């Protein structure tokens, strides 16, 4: 028996050495990739696979078909993809890629197999603007490229391209994400459409007759395919948010919320230029969702607002709060990626309802506007945003307070855009976070509070009391001043100058987590006292 056991062990070891191994990758035979209705030829080593539940596709086959230039370095095991002035690099085995030297995270590291680089399907979607869909039954990846946006060359009098219709066109001013809400701000009204899609899970919001404003695009870094992103970190449900100009006939902005799991949600249109996608909890896994005819949903059909579509439906509300259904939806059909459900005007819905107070928190400056530059060369915008994100984390624990951020990443909403968000949502309180600075030879130290209207004085007094006590800097008082965001808002509004970036003592404290956390806690305590929320 001992000899037999030794022989079996030896045989197993030989087989492990001789036979190739794919680790935790599952090879799928006879897979397919369909690009705009045409099937692509896949090499034997370039089949679609799944790795730890992530669909992996051959990089070169797809991106070259999309018109990008691809090169491979055997020495560094790195693929380089170029389009116009944008360069993207990713390395086999690394969970981090770079776009023009800016790091981005990958859901699964690229896999090098028999000379073919496999990348996550989501990577293709996020970085090329291509809509993707995985049909697990047919073992087919469907890719749909966006409609081309044609810009006639200057002086070209022979161009017969139909010009884009700009009649009643709105401009997208800002996109932010906070408290499980995607908030889109426009300078006009919109008639948005939406879809919820699976494999991967995402919510698609289209804004017809909408283009990006110049102020929104100024300073933005766009990926391959002219896709921009809103940074989302630490959220358990949202993997990322991306946006692009999807069409110019009519001009249509598409915003996609990539999800870690399928979610119930509400789409809210207040008809004043604010559109909100509000998440409302996870739905059951796709394997447990059934179609209206009782058949299993294999992940290829939309999870929509129709209550007959699934056992745990996505919810879209009417103005009276009742579920909105789509009588034209057919749960047995495979959807396109073009949102088909119109969002009703819902002025009575959104944050700050059901007895909750609504607070708008503004991180000063951002994007192209760095704000003041500190004594050691740091930017004010890199102080204000971390503080606001810490305030967000605290407000998320308050069941009686809803909140919206004017910006949740390094972007620049204009001052009127920040005011518009607060006014259009009928917020109860507006708080703007800043760092002070002076060009004087000797910089003062301390905390100051600003307000414009008499109705804001009580809020300023209460929050100032908490902030000064928490930070321990000199109390430089409360001042009335005509500042745009505190003057033009219609609710009590204050602007906090937490300390002086031009003062070496203040500045050394202001960029520490401890100082920022103390400031955030003081602001929230002051807001709660003012609102009478326990």
From TrEMBL:
Q: What is its EC number?
A: 3.5.1.28
In this chain, composition skew of type Polar residues spans: 302-312
Q: Which residues cross the membrane?
A: none
Q: Which GO terms describe its molecular function?
A: N-acetylmuramoyl-L-alanine amidase activity
Q: Where is the sequence biased in composition, kind Low complexity?
A: 290-301, 319-340
Say which domain of life the source belongs to.
Bacteria
Tell whether Hydrolase is among the UniProt keywords: yes
Q: Which SUPFAM superfamilies match?
A: Copper amine oxidase, domain N, Zn-dependent exopeptidases
Q: Where is each MurNAc-LAA domain found?
A: 419-528
Q: Does the keyword S-adenosyl-L-methionine apply?
A: no
Q: Secretion signal: which residues?
A: 1-25
Which parts of this chain are annotated as the region Disordered? 288-357
Top-level enzyme category: hydrolase
| Matching InterPro entries | AMIN_dom, Cu_amine_oxidase-like_N, Mao_N_sf, MurNAc-LAA_cat, N-acetylmuramoyl_amidase_3
Q: Which UniProt keywords apply?
A: Hydrolase, Signal
What PANTHER family does UniProt report for this protein, alphabetically? N-ACETYLMURAMOYL-L-ALANINE AMIDASE, N-ACETYLMURAMOYL-L-ALANINE AMIDASE AMIC
Q: What is this protein called?
A: N-acetylmuramoyl-L-alanine amidase
Q: Which organism is it from?
A: Paenibacillus nicotianae
């Amino acid at each position: 028996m001992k000899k037999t056991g030794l022989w079996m062990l030896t045989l197993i070891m030989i087989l492990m050495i001789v036979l190739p191994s794919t680790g935790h990758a599952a090879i799928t035979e006879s897979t397919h990739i369909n690009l705009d209705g045409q099937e692509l030829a896949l090499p034997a080593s370039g089949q679609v696979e799944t790795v730890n539940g992530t669909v992996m596709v051959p990089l070169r086959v797809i991106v070259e078909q999309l018109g990008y230039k691809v090169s491979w370095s055997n020495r560094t095991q790195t693929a380089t993809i170029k389009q116009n002035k944008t360069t993207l690099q990713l390395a086999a085995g690394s969970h981090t890629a770079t776009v023009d030297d800016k790091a981005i995270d990958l859901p699964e590291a690229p896999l090098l197999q028999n000379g073919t680089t496999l990348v996550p399907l989501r990577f293709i979607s996020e970085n090329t603007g291509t809509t993707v869909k995985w049909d697990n039954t047919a073992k087919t990846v469907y890719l749909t490229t966006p409609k081309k946006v044609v810009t006639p060359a200057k002086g070209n009098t022979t161009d017969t391209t139909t010009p884009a219709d700009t009649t009643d066109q709105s401009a997208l001013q800002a996109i932010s994400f906070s408290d499980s809400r995607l908030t889109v701000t426009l300078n006009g009204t919109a008639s948005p459409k939406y879809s919820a899609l699976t494999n991967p899970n995402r919510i698609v919001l289209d804004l017809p007759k909408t283009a990006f404003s110049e102020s929104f695009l100024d300073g933005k870094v766009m990926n391959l395919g002219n896709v921009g992103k809103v940074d989302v970190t630490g959220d358990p449900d949202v993997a990322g948010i991306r946006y692009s100009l999807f069409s110019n006939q009519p001009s249509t902005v598409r915003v996609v919320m990539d999800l870690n799991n399928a979610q119930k949600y509400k789409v809210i249109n207040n008809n004043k230029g604010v559109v909100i996608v509000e998440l409302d909890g996870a739905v059951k896994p796709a394997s447990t969702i059934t179609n209206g005819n009782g058949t299993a949903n294999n992940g290829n059909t939309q999870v929509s607002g129709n209550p007959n579509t699934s056992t745990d439906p996505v919810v879209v509300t009417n103005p009276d709060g009742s579920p909105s259904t789509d009588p034209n939806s057919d749960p047995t059909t495979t959807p396109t990626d073009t949102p088909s459900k119109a969002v009703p005007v819902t002025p009575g819905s959104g944050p700050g309802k059901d007895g909750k107070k609504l607070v708008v928190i503004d991180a000063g400056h951002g994007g192209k506007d760095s704000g003041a530059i500190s004594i050691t060369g740091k930017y004010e915008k890199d102080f204000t945003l971390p503080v606001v994100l810490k305030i967000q984390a605290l407000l998320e624990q308050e069941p009686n307070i809803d909140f919206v951020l004017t910006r949740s990443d390094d972007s620049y909403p204009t001052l009127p855009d920040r005011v518009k968000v607060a006014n259009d949502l009928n917020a109860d309180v507006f708080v703007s976070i800043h760092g002070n600075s002076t060009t004087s030879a000797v910089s003062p130290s301390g905390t100051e509070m600003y307000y414009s209207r008499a109705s804001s004085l009580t809020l300023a007094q209460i929050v100032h009391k908490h902030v000064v006590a928490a930070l321990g800097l000199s109390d430089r008082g409360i001042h009335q001043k005509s500042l745009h965001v505190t003057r033009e808002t219609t609710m009590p509004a204050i602007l906090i100058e937490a300390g002086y970036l031009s003062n070496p003592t203040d500045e050394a404290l202001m960029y520490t987590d401890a100082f920022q956390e103390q400031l955030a806690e003081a602001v929230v305590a002051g807001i709660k006292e003012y609102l009478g929320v326990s």
